Amino acid sequence: MDTDKKTLYSAVQPSGVPTLGNYLGAIKNFVSLQDEYNCIYSIADLHSLTVKREPKELRSQTVELLALYIACGIDPEKVCLFVQSHVSAHAELTWILNTMTYPGELSRMTQFKDKSRSHADNVNMGLMDYPVLMCSDILLYGTDVVPIGADQKQHLELTRDLAIRFNNRYSPTFTVPEPIIPKTGARIMSLQDPLHKMSKSDDNENAYISMSDDKDAIIRKFKRAVTDSDNVIVCSDDKPGVTNLISIYSVVTGLEVSEVEKKFAGVGYGEFKVAVGEAVAELLCPIRARQKELLADKAYLDGVMIRGAEQANYLANKMLSKVYRKVGLYSPERKK
Ligand code: TYM
User: Fold this and answer.
1) Is any atom of ligand 1 closer than 6 Å to the C-beta of 21?
2) Sheet containing 80-83: which strands, arranged edge to edge?
3) Are 269 and 46 in contact, with CB atoms under 8 Å apart?
4) β-bridge pairing 80-83 and 38-43
5) pLDDT of 186 above 90
6) What pLDDT digit, counting tens, does each position of 211-251 carry?
7) 124: buried, middle or exposed (CB in 10 Å: 19+, 13-18, 0-12)?
8) Ligand 1 site-directed mutation target among 9, 12, 115, 280, most atoms within 8 Å of CB
């Protein structure tokens, strides 16, 4: 770790195949920030257990997500890349932080309320406690900044509150982290219901672009994207579908939103949707091909995971020991 650089932490859950929303809202920034910060990126497998999982599928999605991170351009030589369950300090710090978190703080979380509705048959304690596990992830590493999409902002606010609460109750221990939320792309919306965010758990496959979709599927889904009947390509609160497509095109091509509006002035929706689909396919298809190549080399991926876990365990255990000492847990002296 370079001591001149600030520390950055973020993670993605291995729950289903990541979407274009995960990529544009988070992973793309993980790549662009990897030189500026000491970066720690995790695969949040413990988080993904908060909904019912098929064990075999969870195992394969964990490796697929690691390969995807690397295929997107994350360099395991530069960053610490690891699987959350390989570092037990995450679960241990969660227990300590649980003793300082109030049920009301967790039950009012938007994501908890949404997931309680969509998984009504399995509203478990983990689903409610999920933000505290996320706080532990972040606080274990003295994290300064956390790149996330807009939907995780509330969880980061809790992280800040808990860090301050702990520091006040004991003594300064945790760094209070700041979010990094992109100006455009922080909330990519569903292609079928642009008032809701694009999500990998959507029942309707046409609602999201999966990182494993091929060119035909990508273009087909964009052609079916819900818009409106104005046929005018401008961003506006009353045009959520078109606004979403403009944001996607802007982040994918690097053009400002105003430049996208200018470029497509007078163009029909049909043509615009194909242009967005083509730009997205051009971005995603090489990533998909590289991910496939990486998945054929399991020994390499296992090696990356093992090395990442060693680095993360070292850093996390240092912080956990400090926390245990501060809260008064007894540690016997070992004879030399
Ligand atoms: P997850 O796996 O749901 O999403 C991973 C990242 O993708 C962003 N994202 C989006 N951004 C824009 N538009 C969308 N439609 C969209 N959907 C998802 C999310 O905001 C997130 O940044 N709890 C986290 C994972 C996590 C984590 C952490 C993140 C665990 N520990 C510590 C940061 C720090 C989650 O479920 O993300």
Assistant:
1) yes
2) 80-83, 38-43, 7-12, 145-147, 178-180
3) no
4) parallel
5) yes
6) 999 999 999 999 999 999 999 999 999 999 999 999 999 99
7) middle
8) 12
Between the CA of 296 and the centroid of ligand 1 the distance, in Å, is: 27
Structure tokens at 161: 């509150």
Q: Read off the pLDDT of each residue in 177-203 and give the average, rounded to a whole number.
A: 94
Give residue-wise pLDDT tens across range 295-324.
999 999 999 999 999 999 999 999 999 999
Burial of 171 (0-12, 13-18, 19+ CB in 10 A): exposed
Yes or no: say if 166 and 172 are a contact pair by the CB < 8 Å rule: no
pLDDT single digits (tens) 43-78:
999 999 999 999 999 999 999 999 999 999 999 999
Ligand 1 atom 22: residue of nearest CA: 148
More confident position, 115 or 264: 264
**pTM, entire model:** 0.96
Task: List the catalytic residues.
Answer: 115, 197, 200
- Burial (CB count within 10 angstroms: exposed 0-12, middle 13-18, buried 19+), residue 167: middle
What is the atom index within ligand 1 of the atom nearest the CA of 133? 31
